[in-house]
Amino acid sequence: MKRISKIISVVVLTFVFCLTLAGCSVYHDYKDNLPYHNVYEKIKLDKLVKLLDEEKNNDIKNEVTYVVYASNKETSSTTAITVLNEQAKQYGIDKIYYLDCAKYYTKSSGRKNIQDKLGMKDASVCPTILVYIDGQLKLDWSRTTIKNDYDNSYTKLCYDIFANVDKLK
Prior knowledge:
Layout (H helix, E strand, L loop, with lengths): L1 H22 L3 E3 L4 E2 L4 E3 L2 H13 L6 E7 L4 H16 L5 E5 L7 H11 L9 E6 L2 E5 L3 H6 L4 H10 L6
Parallel strand pairs: 3-5, 4-5
Antiparallel strand pairs: 1-2, 4-6, 6-7
């Protein structure tokens, strides 16, 4: 009887241990490759457009909205997402909207839809960082001139959009 009890205990402990290990990971959402303990809030295009329209029409001034337009299918997106997340935490930014670009950036009709609704220059660029102030687009990473200004450095860009956001106003 004691032997059966020991075997059952070992099996239960092994099961609990395996479940615990399976729950530990760097990413909590493999579908979108978002880092664990992130600042991202996933958003759909229509909801983002509605949010930006509300910001244009409300009484709050200098309201800043950060958007990352990225895809889990692009390696450069996962790099940008990770750097933006860490830098945002350092600068005390608590929310960046994450718009999954996978269904938009590969088709011309999807790119045109995004460009029309969000005011982006080039919706085929993935990842792209967008900064809106009072619902108006102030920084569009998809513009070649902006990318050249930052030498494709996400850290340098993060400094300007998080620490020196007043320059964009």
